[in-house]
Amino acid sequence: MSELIHSEERAPPSLIRRLPQSRVALVGIGLVLFWVTLALFAPWLGLQPPNAQDYAAIAQPKPSAAHLLGTDPLGRDMLSRLIWGARTVLTVAPLAVLAAYLVGCTLGLLAGYYGGLVDAVISRLSDVILSFPVIVLYVILIANIGPSMLNIIVAVVLASAPGIGRIVRGLVLELKSQDFVAAALLRRETALYIMVVELLPNCRGPLITDFCLRLGYTTITIGILGFLGLGLPPPDPDWGGMVQQATAMITVWPHMALLPSAALCSLVLGFNLLADGLRELSLRE
Amino acid sequence: MTAPLLAIKDLRVEYRGAGGVVPAIMDVSLAIMPGESFGLVGESGCGKSTLAMAVMGHLGLAGRIARGEIVLEGQNLVRASEAELRRVRGRRVAMVYQEPGAALNPTMTVGRQLMEVPIAHQDASAVEARLLAARMLADVHMPDPDLVLGRYPHQLSGGQKQRVVIAMALLANPALLLLDEPTTGLDVTVEATVLDLVNELRGKYGTTLLYISHNLGVIAKVCDRVAVMYAGELVEEAPVGELFASPCHPYTRGLLACVPRIGQDKRTAAFVPIPGQVAPPSAHAAGCVFAPRCGQFRAGICDRAPIALHSAGEAHRVRCERWRELPPFERASAATAAVAARGGSPLLAVEHLCKSYEMASPIVSLFRHPLSVVANDDLSFVARRGNILALVGESGSGKSTFARILAGLQSASSGSLRLGEAELAMVPVSRRTAAQVAAIQMVFQHPESTLNPSHSVGWPIARALKKFAAARGRRAVDARVGALLEMVRLPSVIRFRKPRQLSGGQKQRIAIARAFAGNPELLLADEPVSALDVSVQAAIINLLLQIQLEQGTTMVFISHDLALVRHIADHVVVMYLGKVMEAGPADAIFAPPYHPYTEALLSAVPVPDPRVQQKRIRLEGEAPSPINLPKGCRFAGRCPRKLGEICEREAPPLRDAGAGHIIACHIPLEELRRVESVFATSESVVAQP
């Protein structure tokens, strides 16, 4: 089939520009953008301060005119806390994943390009980390280095970089036998140049998809850490922490746990649908 | 008149894709008589495989027969139900695909896969099926059929797998056997035996064949009648002798002018490439599909839709409005190319070069003696300035390993390789000086992997100019890139395109421009045209020859295609399993005395001229594994002229046949000289040098 398409006719536009072709990706983008917009404009939405307690509402925390989505057990406005919580998650998750990518790509490029001992050391270390159940790894790490934004990012890097490295390593192993790498060697290019300029750009297809998926996983992870009390220190809003504080009242005031859960769920769904859409588009090429 | 076994009428096949409906076959009508061998030739994208798939009813979800009918033994397959099709597929039509490896199930033994056929289609019992399978394997000349039945596909070689696939197809005793490029990807000596087998089985079983190939030489060997396809249309159809002797369609003539002819080389005749590239059926306007590339195009005649098939003889049809007016076909082209004088001072001297790979990891080798694979063994030859040295050999002969050592991508194990004064055998590219690196540049085999898909095609050329300091400053680099693109006949604006927007031939042109960016002394071309269509191949070879001459570059040309090597080489080195079998001036290599291996290779070359008689020398089996090599002559195991024990025990002496012609063989020169030329013709058309 591919041979029938004339090579000079048209260049397929890049993956990002073709996004509108996939309905799945559009839904994903929509969900993500919904939260990104709310988080961006949080200070100007006329919300109540997320940490301000309305003692009158504690007795009757259900949704009302004063609190559109009700309040939490301490009388803080749910709507405000949800949106400010989105701000937290949408800062920490992308930063953490980006940092993980920086480390993972470096390790993967080194292991794949050099092979031999370098590969053996990097791959075995990765295997050790990958053999831990992720949650256990996070709990051990955060419990030891203490909960803070930086430490969450460090934990995500440590847990995700081996997986990313493994993907990059596999792609590089395949790419480095291509003739254009030999051609670069015949121009006396340095190893660093070949890795970064010749090899890495050709990994982007699978990596873009993985990036979106990993954003979703990391969002869940941050939620779980918050739920376990290892998230951001209180009182700042954090979706996982909000669910945890509401568990005691879940039978009486279910909205307190359900709303942050739904928020988390929709954002993760957005990332996953976006990844699915991107994968579908890249296969359609 | 008997009814045709297969009749295809006004067939049109379309594919639905993301970009809408794309036609793959525009209009094909043909009839194949029982017992006939019908050839279908064309370049990639012309729709020949789609035609086979349409006959098999395997067009998939995207494909659709839009018009026409396919009648097999009176039954119209286009209107047949899936159940009827399944019956036809199993019993009346069978197919042999290009990739024998993909046609066999790797998890089942060969025997079980073969036995399935009689069990499913002839209600045979397991015992009967096993007997039938073993007998069929014996018929396809498989050594030890009973042993092979218990083997898995990965334990067989490529040629053996293709024999199994042919056996499987014939077990159903089909009336029609479709062969889609069954020998592409096999070595030439193996190809020759498979083609012999096809011819032999055809006589034995009376099977009708539809043989699809891009190789005119193969078609000339196995077919009675040939149809030429171009861009989804059948453009010419004729009996095989007539098609090769007096082709009527400009495309058929173009194809024949693109392939090397026996007895000619670059000094006596140049290739005449077809301009442009194969266009998809969807791209063409009204009128003749070949019009954009045709030298005989006349407005008002050729662009009026549609062109009908005209009768140009009893069984000769041609889809050209102007076939009567075309000049008579000349087989020997009048065009000649200027070539450099042979001889000259040596530029590259290779002496006793060896390369072996250790098979085991360092830990394993502590416990037992490691196995080593010898890829290059004691290579010695010289490449002279301004000349073309060709390395020929089948897969596993070590020619690509040598190329990588020469380029510095690998290091030799021992021996010497000197470029001018510099010793480079064990100097990897990272330790060579800038001048040494620039001096040896390479054109690679696969156009798909030669350019980085992430960068524009002008980028590697500009980068090479900067790295080799061949141009300084953005202006100068830009101008030089433009000049290099012009040298390879590409428009300057192409530099901004991405590789996927280019055709295979254009990519190879870019690769050539990149290689010449640093003004190399030596161009290393590793099978530069083997992945290209025939008409594009000729253009690239002409281009390489011309640039090589203009720049006075020395070229090391690596190829498995002897006909092509005959055309372009000044000196030839024939390799087998890492060893030089024969080396010398091209004229001497292609005439007696031959090394027995060279003789067998030449006799296996598919010649696109049915009048040429080739001596029939066939090699048994395939090249052995390079791990346990015989002590004596590497070729002893397959040599048809083996003298006896001495060949296996002792390394053959290098016999000097004069004028730098060396033959490594135990057979005395006088005896080798007595051999006749491999090629002879029924007419005195072909003169051997």
Protein model, in words:
The complex is a heterodimer of chains A (285) and B (689). Chain A is mainly alpha-helical and 285 residues long. Chain A has a single domain, classed as MetI-like fold (Orthogonal Bundle), CATH 1.10.3720. Chain A has ten helices and no strands. In chain A, helix 4 crosses helix 5 (149-175), helix 5 (149-175) runs antiparallel to helix 8 and helix 8 (204-227) runs antiparallel to helix 10 (255-284). Chain B has 23 helices and 26 strands. In chain B, strand 4 and strand 5 (75-76) form a beta hairpin. In chain B, helix 16 (474-487) crosses helix 17 (504-515). Residues 683-689 of chain B have low confidence and may be disordered. Classes of the chains: A mainly alpha (285), B alpha/beta (689). At the A-B interface, helix 6 of A face strand 18 and helix 15 of B.
How would you briefly describe this protein structure?
With about 280 residues, chain A is mainly α. Chain A is built from 10 helices and no strands. Chain A has one domain: Orthogonal Bundle (MetI-like fold), CATH 1.10.3720.
Shape of chain A: elongated
> What proportion of the residues of chain B form beta strands (DSSP E)?
15-25%
> Biggest β-sheet of chain B: count, sense, barrel?
8 strands, mixed
Range of helix content of chain B: 25-40%
Q: Tell me the number of strands of chain B.
A: 26
Cα-atom radius of gyration of chain A = 23 Å
- The succession of helices and strands of chain A, N to C, reads HHHHHHHHHH
The total count of helices of chain B amounts to: 23
Structural class of chain A: mainly alpha
Largest interface: A-B, 26 and 48 residues
Instruction: Report the CATH architecture of chain A.
Output: Orthogonal Bundle
What average pLDDT do the residues of chain A reach? 85
Low-confidence stretches of chain A: 1-10
* Overall geometric form of chain B: globular
- What separation lies between the terminal Cα atoms of chain A? 11 Å
